[in-house]
Amino acid sequence: MKSPLFWKVSTLLGCILLLLVPLFMVGNLISERESYRNEVENTLRQSTSGPQQLVGPLIAIPVTEIYYKFEEEKKIEHKRSYMHFILPESLLIDGNQHVESRSIGIYDGQIWNTDLKIKAQFNTDKLGQLKGETMTLGQPFIVVGVGDARGIGAVSVSKINGETLSIEPGSGVYGALSGIHIPLTDKALEPKTFLLEMSLNLAGTGSFAVVPVGRNSEMTLNSNWPHPGFMGNYLPVKHDISASGFQANWKSSWFANNLGGWFDDRETPEWSAIPAFSVTVATPADQYQLTDRAIKYAILLIALTFMAFFVFETLTGLRLHPMQYLLVGLSLVLFYLVLLALSEHVGFTPAWIIASLVGAVMNGIYLQAVLKSWKRSGMFVLALLGLDVVMWFLLRSEDSALLLGSAVLALALFAVMYLTRHFDWYSLSQPKRPQPPAEPDTEAMRLWK
Question: Are residues 325 and 250 in the same domain?
Answer without folding.
Answer: no
